[in-house]
């Protein structure tokens, strides 16, 4: 965006996992006698991330 003849503004938005969809690791505890057998305890991807930025050029 041109603000004045020699002054410009640049806006930027970067995002990852916009819909915040989880991907889980396979269950780590495969011992049938355990109370936490088959429980999913870790997420494989990152949660939603949004980064905003602005740059002024003259």
Can you walk me through this structure?
This protein is mainly β and 58 residues long. It has one domain. 0% of the residues lie in helices and 38% in strands. It is built from no helices and three strands. The protein has a three-stranded antiparallel beta sheet with strand order 1-2-3, with no helix packed on it. A hairpin with a 2-residue loop joins strand 1 and strand 2 (7-16). It starts with a strand and ends with a strand.
Q: Can you lay out the helices and strands and say which pair or pack?
A:
Layout: E1 2-4, E2 7-16, E3 49-57
Antiparallel strand pairs: 1-2, 2-3
Which descriptors apply to this entry?
58 residues, mainly beta, 3 strands, 0% helix
Helix content: under 10%
Average predicted confidence as pLDDT = 87
Total beta strands = 3
Our Rg estimate from Cα atoms comes to: 22 Å
Main pleated-sheet profile: 3 strands, antiparallel
Strand order in the sheet with the most strands: 1-2-3
Output the helix-strand order: EEE
The helix tally amounts to 0
Could you list the spans in which at least 5 consecutive residues all have pLDDT below 50?
none
Structural class: mainly beta
What coarse outline follows from CA principal-axis ratios?
rod-shaped
* Alpha-carbon distance between the two ends: 12 Å
Strand content: 35-45%
Number of domains: 1
